[in-house]
Amino acid sequence: MRTLKVLSVTKEKPKAISRSVFYRTSVGVVASSQHFDGENDFEEYLNRKLLGSARVRGLMKNSKRVSEIRKVGNYSHTCEKFYGDRWVLSGDAALFLDPIFSSGVHMSVSTSTFAAKTILKAMEAGNQSLETPGLGDAYEAKARLGGKRFRNLIMMFYDGSFVAQMKKALERENIRKGFTSAVAGDVWNENNYLFEKKVL
């Protein structure tokens, strides 16, 4: 809390107004879900982690918690089905990935493009249902494949040994090209060395 002195602006003689200003912010801990295993008291866990840092302890010395503690985990989600007779899901509505590689817009545009092509095929075939074999199921398989490969990249990134392993692996040209291509969003390229070898 800070106290500010403010001068009022009126036609009358200025007078000092003293006000308290409260700052409200969210504070939390980001950790692998394994760090929470066996933890039942999340308030105690949060306090232990936050107050374990001298810098954070100093910043929070006059703070007061104003809401309950919430635990949020794994922002990723995937729908059970991406299509039906006359509907199709694409982008974040179909699957949402952790944004570590900024894959969201790419996945949204790509899956929307695949969905549009699937709808056009259905219309060209006499307005067929997306439930027709080779339409919705082919779209969903392609969308899921891209999502799976991005998710595999994300899981590798969160593995503690990822950086050390990648430094060594990236010395090999085929791995470097494959990794660069995949991170850049080319997750449907079957000629990618990492996909051929089932690494991703």
Describe this structure in words.
The protein is mostly helical. It folds into two domains: 2-59, no CATH class; 77-196, no CATH class. It has seven helices and six strands; from the N terminus they run ββααββββααααα. The protein has helices spanning 42-51, 54-59, 104-124, 136-158, 162-169, 173-183, 193-196, and strands at residues 2-7, 16-21, 77-78, 83-84, 87-88, 95-96. The strands form three sheets. A two-stranded antiparallel ribbon has the order 1-2. It has a two-stranded antiparallel ribbon with strand order 3-6. A two-stranded antiparallel ribbon has the order 4-5. A hairpin with a 2-residue loop joins strand 4 and strand 5 (87-88). Helix 3 (104-124) runs antiparallel to helix 4. The longest helix is centred in the last third of the chain and has 23 residues, at 136-158. The chain starts with a strand and ends with a helix. Residues 1-9 have low confidence and may be disordered.
